[in-house]
Amino acid sequence: MHYRSREVVQVRSAYDCDVLVIGGGIVGLSTAYAITRAAPGTRVTVLEKELGPARHQTGRNSGVIHSGIYYRPGSLKARYAVRGAAEMVKFCAEYDIAHAVTGKLIVATEKSELPRLHSLVQRGRENGIPVRELGPAQLTEYEPEVRGLAAIHVSTTGICDFVAVARRLAEASGAEIRYGADVVRADRRPGLGVAVRTADGAIVRGRVLVNCAGLHCDEMARLTGDDPGMRIVPFRGEYYTLARPELVRGLVYPVPDPAFPFLGVHLTRGIDGGVHIGPNAVPALAREGYGWGVVRPRELGATLSWPGSWRIARRHWRYGAGELRRSVSKAAFTEAVRRLLPAVTPEDLVPAAAGVRAQAVLRDGTLVDDFLIKEGPRTVHVLNAPSPAATASLPIGREVARRALAALAAA
């Protein structure tokens, strides 16, 4: 979604819909689905700038239904991921969408990782997730080619086709979905509603606006006149496909660094039978910067002008240097993979499509760790919904729908 400077669009008394949702990713479509389920007859319009649903974060991840083991007990991520994983499996089964509950391994390859692995066991149990601790011999029973000092097996992790889920949500919602509708202006009148103008000159008026614009959610919030208090800093995740998929049976993850919201380079056997390796996490030079050659000066300038970006760089430059090294050097990326899978060679890694994570960063450089939803007059903004948002999309959609319907009732 590309925004120009805010200009006034007249809001008239005639409304095109009750709730206007900006963004046709899985969270926006889940919100539309939840609104029409909770309040039948509510008119919902979804505007998506791409020509189809789920073209960005939803369609460019590893397709994992996360268990919720990583997330702080009581946080939105923990509650919604645990609940959402079970609901996503049920949704896929109900609508005949490709999925499987595979379980996954989290593997410690160094002694320094063992305390963190034990902490994950405790966190999993606090979140109500079944966890089994494994020694090296038990680990190889699950994954003969994977090596580690210890591991845990999380049985509730799965995989699915999130793009198919998004399409089904769009169909089942009964909402009007307008693709190719790039919002460029907005006018929010607390006493009237919200009107937006798209790049083709169309004006759409709604009583309440829901901002699920993902990589552009902070810009959308400012466009309506609300201060999001954060900035989206895009991080590109680069993937490879494993040329010898027989080396990996299921899902294998390293022990994550608790200082970062990234899970590290992992191995994922997808619903298509292929094995995806990645992602790393490097700064993107555009909101949709899926390669080093994609540079948008305005968007890059917005990132560089945000004080939090520089504070992240100063605080975590060693970590960032390692990620950059793995981005520009296939040998370095292979080295990281070999910690888990010693048999892999550079020739086994075939470049695959990258993704970009919409990471909210506060002014002080804090990486927002939980889902973040804020409200303004007649607006609801989803300001941080990276992984595991696809897993948690059904509960997130219900929460956003609840807030939107409350705003609608108060209008």
Output the keywords.
single chain, 411 residues, alpha+beta, eight-stranded mixed beta sheet, 11 helices
Number of helices: 11
Report the span from N to C terminus. Answer: 27 Å
Main beta-sheet annotation = 8 strands, mixed
Radius of gyration in whole Å, from Cα? 21 Å
The best one-word shape is globular
Percentage of residues assigned to helices: 25-40%
**Mean pLDDT across residues:** 94
Which structural class should the secondary elements be placed in?
Answer: alpha+beta
Low-confidence stretches: 1-13
Strand content: 25-35%
Report the count of strand segments. 22
In short:
This protein is of the alpha+beta class and 411 residues long.
Task: Itemize the secondary structure elements and their pairings.
Blueprint: E1 17-22, H1 26-38, E2 44-48, E3 64-65, H2 76-94, E4 99-101, E5 104-108, H3 114-126, E6 131-134, H4 136-142, E7 150-154, E8 158-160, H5 162-173, E9 176-179, E10 183-189, E11 193-198, E12 203-211, H6 217-224, E13 231-237, E14 240-242, E15 251-254, E16 266-269, E17 275-278, E18 282-283, H7 297-305, H8 307-315, H9 317-328, H10 330-338, E19 349-351, E20 355-361, E21 372-376, E22 379-384, H11 393-410
Parallel strand pairs: 1-2, 1-12, 2-9, 5-15, 12-22
Antiparallel strand pairs: 3-8, 4-8, 5-7, 6-7, 10-11, 11-12, 13-18, 13-20, 14-17, 14-19, 15-16, 16-17, 21-22
Helix pairs in contact: 1-5, 1-11, 2-11, 9-10
